[in-house]
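Pilot study result, target chain (320 residues):
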Amino acid sequence: MLTIILSIIGGIMLLLLVGLLVAWRFSHAVAAKASAAIPPKGHFTEVDGGRLHWVEKGEGKPVVMIHGLAGNLHNFSYAMMDRLAEAGYRAIAIDRPGCGWSERDSDEQARIPEQARMIAEMLAKEGIEKPLLVGHSLGGAVSLALALNHADQVGGLALVSALITAPQTPSEAFAGINVANPGTRRFIAETLAIPMSIRNGAKTLAIVFGPDAAPEDFRFRGGGLLSLRPNAFYAAATDMHAVGIDMGGITARLADISVPVGLFYGMEDRILSAPEQIAALTAALPDADVETMGARGHMPLVIEPERLQIFIERMAGRVS
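Predicted structure:
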């Protein structure tokens, strides 16, 4: 009997190992196709702790756009870059450290102040002076850290659906990346993450964009395909873990921000509670410029680019 039980256990273990091997090979094959479909097309700047990939278009006052959790610079190149360049701005979109085609040397560079430091170093090296920072979602938190820790390099903040204070409960869209242990993160990234992302992709996009419909071309034009890579999953999960560590300290210092600040939210955002985020910032900075949209969600940079452009230009006009 014992021999039979051990044989059954051995067979199950073998099947599990074969399944994991198949998942690993499938994940890396998908990652290779995603990388080939959306290759890097911008500049690379070496900084302490990694290198940053960024693109630019147009001439004029610099507007630097920083994307959110599990995103990449294509979230902004989808609609906003062309609009701002045509309006007479130097539109710059950055892949945050570890995201898109940017790289970071270790998990330490996932910490929000570290991401801000790396971007500040890139701005200094490239001679990009006093830009308006347009920070979306987690990119808003990174923008806040830049304004707090590198104030002399920031002209103003236009925060879009921005993370101002850590929510008590993460959105259902990010349940799959809420993994605290680095070893577990890496294991999931290399095996299960990509098949599950493909399976749940439509549901996740529906939450991220809801109540708006996600554009059918977002996976390619908006860079969504780049999330189908093990390193992208690992980076997003690590970024999410950093929010719990760093956001309390950032929120507590908001009153120290000295540059013009504007907020732009869809009031039916399903990722962050717009009233909660707005209240956290205006409690510290009551003169902040606040603009909201009813019946709109987390992705106005894709869904409402014309209205968002007006807001960004208004904030750019306040940069001295």
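One observation from the pilot: The CA atoms of residues 3 and 215 lie 56 Å apart. A full batch analysis is planned for the follow-on phase.
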